[in-house]
Specification:
By secondary structure, the chain is of the alpha+beta class. It folds into two domains: 73 residues; 77 residues, Beta Barrel (OB fold (Dihydrolipoamide Acetyltransferase, E2P)). The protein has three helices and seven strands. The two termini are 46 Å apart. Helix 1 packs across helix 3 and helix 2 runs antiparallel to helix 3.
Amino acid sequence: MITCPWCGTHYMTFRSNCKNCGGPLPPPAEATATPPPIPDLPEPPPPPRAFKGNFVWKKLGSDGWSIVALVFLLLGFIFTLVGCPLTFAFLPGVLFAFLGLVFLGAGIPLINWRYRKAQQTLNVLRMGQATLGNIVDVTQNYNVTVNGRNPWTIYYNFQVGGRDYEGETTTLRPVGFTHHAGQPVYVLYLESDPAQNTIYPPVI
């Protein structure tokens, strides 16, 4: 709505002069893009926090690397189970057994690494100190699909003692509309090693 500054007449659309008093009307203000609303930030409770141990398995279920590791392990067991009995009878059995061992050799260290990372995240959630940080980027990985969903990764940064730190967290939850670059976020970190950190509340 446009209001004539001379006589107070209101207009729904712009015109150069008021038809009531003839005075010039100010041009309409340009519409500015409204940034998406920032959700209320729930402040983390003081440590120790009550996070259950099954968080680790939920975290592994939404982690892209863990999913790749589980695929490797599954293929490794299948190829090994099929190949080993055939090793002494057929040459393809040796190839199957070899591929099985390769997949197992790749999957076991990978799942062990991600399990330890999930345990570290759980420890940070339970005992970490809180500070404010910012989300740097939010991306979706289309190379991995779990039950028809692609995992999202939230990248963030924060400061402790004047030093900059970065972190990331992965989730299957569609966070593209709830998290965005520039959004403030609480970060939990270990005082002894701020490189071990995660956002709060966690997304899994």
